[in-house]
Structure formats: structure tokens, C-alpha cells
Write a structure and sequence with these properties.
mainly alpha; about 120 residues; 4 helices
Length: about 120
């Protein structure tokens, strides 16, 4: 088992629709590139709309939501640190980490794996 993934004995019982929605829950965070706070709002909308239909989709949308809230907090910290210039470097590291982890999570969800980000505040339960 690789880092960031959890065992899921019901993995083979997931429908292709559930896997697609799980993947979309993670990829929806890229809306944040276009709309301010879209990286939080898009997973939130998927979680609210699909949580009654599938436990897997609800879990992955909640995971994406919590991770993107954590990233938003990180962005605010980076912004505060720009006045001492280290914030610019931290912005780059945070952005690259967000991009990579979001893509990995989407791939894992599409495989039917309940992905867990290596770091995330678990605010939405």
C-alpha cells in the first residue's frame, strides 16, 4: 500500500459512475484557477449534491474539500509572508504540491481507492 491511500475492501463494488464522481470531486478544485475560492466551492458543491448517493463520492468530495481548505489557509499564510519575501517561494512550493497531490488523488479515486492527502485539516466531517 502506498502513502496516502487507504485500504478499501469494497473497492471492486464501486460503479464506474461512483469512480468518475470521486475523480471529479478532486479535479473540481481546478476551478480555483479561474474563480477565487473555486478550489473550495467546487468540491463543496459536489459533496452537497452527491453525498446521499454514494459513500465513496461523499468521502472523496469531503477529502478534497478539507485539503483545499487547508491549501487556502496556506495561501493566506504565504500572502502574509510575502512582505519578507519568503512568501513568494512558499507560494510556488504550495502551488506545485497542490497540483501534484490533486492529480494523484484524482487518479486514485478513478481507480476506486479512498485517497487520503498526506496533510489536510479535517474540518468537514
Amino acid at each position: 500500500m502506498e502513502a496516502g491511500e487507504a485500504s478499501d475492501p469494497g473497492r471492486s463494488q464501486l460503479t464506474p459512475d461512483e469512480r468518475s464522481w470521486g475523480m471529479l470531486a478532486h479535479l473540481s478544485a481546478f476551478v480555483g484557477v479561474i474563480l477565487p475560492c473555486g478550489n473550495v466551492l467546487a468540491p463543496l458543491l459536489i459533496w452537497l449534491a452527491r453525498r446521499e448517493h454514494s459513500a465513496f463520492v461523499a468521502d472523496q468530495a469531503r477529502e478534497a474539500l478539507n485539503f483545499n481548505i487547508t491549501v487556502l489557509v496556506g495561501v493566506l499564510v504565504c500572502y502574509a509572508l510575502t512582505w519578507i519575501l519568503i512568501g513568494f517561494l512558499l507560494f510556488a512550493v504550495l502551488g506545485l504540491t497542490w497540483l501534484i497531490l490533486t492529480i494523484v488523488a484524482a487518479i486514485r479515486a478513478n481507480e476506486g481507492v479512498r485517497y487520503r492527502y498526506p496533510f489536510a485539516l479535517r474540518l468537514v466531517t
